[in-house]
Amino acid sequence: MNLSYFIARRYFLSKKKKSFINIISIISMLVVAIGTMALVIVLSVFNGMEDLLRGLYGSVDSNLVVKPVEGKSFEYTEDIKLAIEAFEDVTYITDVLEDNALIKYNNAQRVANVKGISENFIEEGRLDNHLAFGDLKLKEGDVNYAIVGSGVRYDLSINPKNDFYTIQMVFPDEIKPGMTNIDKMYRLKNILPAGVFAIEKSYDDNLVFVPVDFAEELFNKKGKRTSLEIQLGEGADVKNLKQEIQTAIGDQFEVLTNDEVHGGLYKVLSYEKFFVFLAFSVIIGIASINIFFSLSMLAIDKKKDVAILTAQGASRSLVRNIFLFEGCIVAFTGAFTGLALGLLVSFVQQEYGLIGMGMETAIMNAYPVKIEWLDIFFTILCIVCITLITAIQPAINASKNIALNELQ
User: φ and ψ at 90, to 5 degrees?
Assistant: First the structure.
């Protein structure tokens, strides 16, 4: 066994219960353990939240989205459709025409995002697991139906089972010079509510699905689309297909993956996670200052031991390593204890969901948790760096005492 490590371990396991230095070391160890445990748990919750959002958006949104590079809409031609359908892995192409419109129901009104979609959207089954009330249908014969978000339904008190009230959708029309008739300044269309979906707050509070031909008439954009949603078969290479479809349809369009569509949200989560990591690292760093003071006092307390070791031929590097090992033992004992507790709590929450959201309307009953081993690696690396920074100076000072004693 390394002599420096052996002596450092003896100091750490000293049975002098009244030693103030030992008390500070124990406090340092506990604070590092608590900080490490909290860091692991919080990072795991962030991972769980991101995984939950990816799962939600992945189940409802398409694999790829085609949008025009310039302008809000484009002319949807047969050539574009055939160019995309030529790829074997493409299973569905959903036409989309969307814009904001004023929605009225009974005596209530509000603005919402009206999204016109082709009927194959229902066939894809993207809303099957998110239907809260009513039916999933856009057309029944010549009758048009709307599927509204739960937030929109709540604001307007929409009842899909009541056929006496229709949803009125109002959209501003093109205003020509000299026009004085107010009725011609907007377009008004009526549609029956069919069902209510509950996906995620940003969707539920703003989105209403309608047939795409209904949206064409409402927005006065016959034959135009704001985007195309492409659904791929299982096992398809999304990134590779994105590049191939982009080449096939030309530079006037951009093809986006699901992650790119929601890239802003995922970036915000990444930034939040990074700053949380920094904040907890600072807390662990502050806790490690106690290690600095305890090692400094230990170096003073063990002057006689150092003098004896020096008389027996101990080098400056051996004395320095003793105090370095002492600092590492204190920090790593706390860190790995906290790491083990953090992983245990995260695993239990991941498997059994003991801590609930505390909201009846929450998407999940319990906080989502996901353990990422890369986070564990960076946590350990952070603790190693902090420990070395706090322990190196007291160790160097202790070794310098040897030189001073030799000069005296």
Answer: -80, 120
Strand-strand pairing, 186-197 and 167-172:
antiparallel
What is the tens place of the pLDDT at every residue in 357-381? 655 555 566 678 888 888 888 888 8
Encoding tokens for residue 79? 């050539």
Q: Which residues, at least 6 apart from 23, have a Cβ–Cβ distance to it below 8 Å?
A: none
Yes or no: say if 402 and 310 are a contact pair by the CB < 8 Å rule: yes
Is the separation of the CB atoms in 323 and 8 below 8 Å? yes
Closest residue by Cα to residue 280 from 178, 382, 161: 382
Q: Can you tell me the mean pLDDT for 1-17?
A: 62
Give every CB contact of residue 192 below 8 A, 6+ residues apart in sequence.
143, 144, 145, 146, 163, 166, 167
- Residue from 303, 302, 315, 293 nearest 391 by CA: 293
- Of how many residues is the chain composed? 408
State which H helix or E strand residue 229 sits in: strand 227-232
Instruction: Please give the angle made by the CA atoms of 135, 136 and 137, to the nearest 5 degrees.
Output: 105
Q: Give the Cα separation of 215 and 343 in Å (integer).
A: 51
Quote the CA–CA distance of 134 and 193 in Å, as a whole number: 9
Distance CA 99, CA 115 (A): 7
Can you tell me the distance from the alpha carbon of 313 to that of 316, in angstroms, rounded to the nearest whole number?
10
What is the pTM for the complete model shown?
A: 0.74
- Of 155, 157, 156, 183, which is closest to residue 170 (Cα–Cα)? 183
